[in-house]
Amino acid sequence: MLKPLVNLLFPKVCHACLNLLQDNEDTICVDCRHDLPVTNFHFDDDDAIKKVLYGRANIENGTALFRFEKKGLVQQLVHGLKYKGYETIGYSLGNWLGGELKTLDTYKTVDMVIPVPLHKKKLKKRGYNQVAKFGQQIAEALDVDYVDDVLIKVTNTQSQVSKKQFERWNKNDAFFEITNSDFINNKHILLVDDIITTGATLEACISVLNKAKNIKISIATIAIA
Questions:
Q1: Judgement on whether residues 63 and 163 belong to the same structural domain of the protein
Q2: Is the pLDDT confidence value at 22 over 60?
Q3: Same domain for 66 and 8
Q4: What is the number of domains present in the chain?
Q5: How far apart are CA 209 and CA 183, in angstroms?
Q6: pTM recorded for the entire structure
Q7: Of 225, 172, 176, 174, nearest to 199 (Cα)?
Q8: Domain that holds residue 98
Q9: Same domain flag for 21 and 41
């Protein structure tokens, strides 16, 4: 009896198009799920992520769920996840991508999922890492651990830092650190982030993770720009 009243006072809307959700819909409406620009990189053996990082970082596999388009549905989702506190978006997209990755042999060797970390000041201000739910659901689908305390960010930067800045700092390993390299020795790590653009952030993370012995790194992001 309370459900209609709750829906009236706090209507559920699609986080992509902002239209009201039907009773059988959650987070993203059926129409938007159909219209979202999926990449299918992981199904098509597409090397788009490897090409972004070519000559800078070696990875085993790489995928992104969507293509990022300015003023498009994906931008609306990422904005809601990152700046409006809608963590259910990360949960839903993690379920989506995790459900697909678990069917593929190339991702069955993953030992743990690690998120690109936020600096502690930014984490305190925002209250959450926007890729946490996304990564946790992928880890659950792959039946592996989600580990967010091995890779840490030690330099606080603006969100739109340039590629050149990352590359300059990366040489001094000043952005990120690993707290326990022994824990990730001989492991296949799936590194997750929200968007890959130039690949500079992921490159910096991979550079630090490679200080561990005999590790393999794959990448999964919500979107690629």
A1: yes
A2: yes
A3: no
A4: 2
A5: 11
A6: 0.90
A7: 225
A8: 37-224
A9: no
Coil, strand or helix: which one is 11? coil
pLDDT value of residue 24 = 86
C-alpha pair distances (Å), 62 with each of 51, 121, 139, 153, 175:
10, 29, 16, 22, 22
What single string gives the DSSP state of each residue in 116-174?
Answer: PPPBHHHHHHHSS-TTHHHHHHHHHHHT-EE--SSEEE-S---TT--HHHHHHHHTTT-
The two tokens of residue 104 are 């593929």
What's the whole-number mean pLDDT along residues 5-20?
78
- The CA–CA distances, whole Å, from 60 to 42, 50, 65, 78, 215 equal 12, 9, 17, 26, 10
Sorted by sequence, the CB contacts under 8 Å of residue 6 that are 6+ apart come out as: none
Continuous segment of H or E residues that includes residue 91: helix 87-101
pLDDT at position 154 over 50: yes
Q: 144 - beta bridge partners?
A: none
* Residues 71 and 135 both lie in one domain: yes
**Segment among 4-8, 63-67, 109-113, 119-123 with least mean pLDDT:** 4-8
Confidence of residue 136 (pLDDT cuts 50, 70, 90): very high
Query: What average pLDDT does the segment 162-179 reach?
Result: 65
